[in-house]
Amino acid sequence: MELLREEIQNEFVKKIEELSGQNVYACYQCGKCSAGCPLVGQMDILPHTILRLLQMGQKKEALDSETPWFCATCLQCSVKCPKGVDVAGIMDALREFLRRNGVEKMELQKIADRMWKKIPQQGLVSGFRKFSS
Amino acid sequence: MQYPYFPGCTLTNKAKGLNDMAKAGADILGAPLKELENWYCCQANFSSVTDNLMNHLAPVRTLIAAAKEGQKLVVLCSTCYYVLKRVSAIMARDEEKRKVVYEFLEEEYTKPVEVVHFLEYVRDEVGFDKLKENVKMDISVLAIAPYYGCQLLRPSKELAFDDPFEPSIFEEFLGALGCESVDSPFKTECCGSFLTTFSEKGVEDCVDRVLTYAGKNGAEAVTTSCPLCNFNLDWAQKEIKNKNEKFNNMPVFYLTELMALALGIEVPVEVWDEHVVDPRPFLAEKGIVKRTAL
Ligand code: SF4
Ligand code: SF4
User: Fold this and answer.
1) d(CA A83, CA B185)
2) N or C terminus of chain A: which is more exposed, having fewer CB within 10 Å?
């Protein structure tokens, strides 16, 4: 079977590549990103598998996954990737794509009830940035 | 040489221990921190998406203001350091983006300003030797694990702060203060960061790993330069302990609080009150603060 980039690289994948400035096809699936990710315990799909889904143009699977929301932008993956792929940037692009389509993950009431008095300003501001549209 | 200092929003509000103790310490060291006259919120996130420059505007404004006051800008909060340094790197390398930002701000980013962290400032402008000479109180009984977190070190090429895998500046700083600096395997791993607003479970998992292994290596407390790391490491302990009673709670200090103790500065009650795990019983037990002073 012949697999052509033109056939699997749909508009969605092009958008993610454009938003992140990354080439998802540079990834050769070594799994180093997932091996060093401190948040894999919370994720439903491993980071390198998200890359694979993007390579295969699997929009629904990539967007239905909780993984991008659990990415803390710690950049461990991005500094460790032997192919120079900024995996954290791709996670951010996925979140941004979802936010621009109206997805909202910030539950302010929960924060207000529990940690309002103590949470530093930067925690709230970055929370809004990452989780609310 | 005096350079402008950028405190940022959290330091002027919920992290006074970090800000006030830095200023008090810098005064003693003869390198006072003069607050930058016009500064703006760093935006708390570096926005990596390529088609939106909005989030870079406030940091650029800060950098333009700083360039008028000096060649370097001293920053203490790890997040502010990370965002300002990354935005300044974009402005330096991307002419097109620089132009768009200029057209919007009507103020040009012409002179690059070097963003330096407080630790670099003390090392390069004061010297760790001189810091050591100014120590008034013996704190050698404190075994402290420095926690770097993410935003001082990564992306390593852009920040060029220290070796991304084996950094040492924090250890050198603690060494100059005279306390025992304890190495720990997760000192450069994430605390969970902004996930604190989304998944406390995720943060607890990260914090548990960082603190448990610091403890196993002999640390009695940890220290950070980031209000968000500090908050997560401090706040998450209660729930971790609820789930696992073998977990040992430990105080989380700002690096400047330890500096203040070593330099003999009286740390105000309000500063200790900012903590979740109260460090006073620990410091009293070590004979660092007198019980009567609590
Ligand atoms: S580390 Fe890089 S090359 Fe390896 S799987 Fe992850 S993204 Fe792909
Ligand atoms: S940046 Fe995100 S995906 Fe990468 S290692 Fe950190 S948490 Fe995992």
Assistant:
1) 25
2) N
Domains B4-119 and B136-293 share a fold: no
Identify all chain A residues contacting B192, using CB atoms and an 8 Å cutoff. 39, 72
Half-sphere exposure of B260 (CA within 13 A, CB side): 21
Residue whose pair of structure tokens reads 């692009």 in the numeric block: A93
**CATH fold group of domain B4-119:** Glutathione S-transferase Yfyf (Class Pi); Chain A, domain 2 (1.20.1050)
B90 CA to centre of ligand 1 in angstroms: 25
Q: Is the ipTM of this complex over 0.90?
A: yes
Class of domain B136-293: alpha beta
Of A89, A98, A103, A111, nearest to A33 (Cα)? A89
Residue with tokens 């200790």: B272
Find which of B86, B198, B252, B277 to mutate to test the A interface (most A CBs within 10 Å of its CB): B198
Report the residue of A122, A130, A131 to disrupt the B interface, i.e. the one with the largest count of B CBs within 10 Å.
A122
User: Which domains, from first to last, does chain A contain?
Assistant: 5-106 (1.10.1060.10)
Q: Which tens digits make up the pLDDT trace of B30-58? A: 999 999 999 999 999 999 999 999 999 99
> Nearest-CA residue of chain A relative to B196?
A123
CB proximity list for A98: less than 8 A, separation 6 or greater? A63, A68
Within 8 A by CB and 6+ apart from A1, the residues are none
